[in-house]
Amino acid sequence: MNSKVEVNATSGCKVRGIVCEGELAGWCGIQLEDEKYEIAIIIDDKFWGLGKQVFQDMMCWAKELNHDDVYINFLHTRPDYKFLKKISKSVSEIELFGSKFTSYQLTVK
User: Fold this and answer.
1) What range does the domain containing 90 cover?
2) What is the mean pLDDT of the chain?
3) pTM flag (> 0.85)
């Protein structure tokens, strides 16, 4: 928790809890990772339907924070996200924390 409070205090970043019907459903944030702004969305399985709205809200945050691009990274074992491929500026394989990820570069509009 303390590390996310520090991230939230960093220029260009924003971290928030996700609450649904009074219950903590997860957290989300725009955080700086390897000199790039990354979108992170962590939602408990029973709330996965919230992801699309959270993503849309975070893209609004990215615009408010004046980012040109943001990235969203998924562990390489996750299936491809066709809607992300469609709206991405680029898609690439990267390594973070010793694991392979598919990275989607998104232009902030």
Assistant:
1) 2-107
2) 94
3) yes
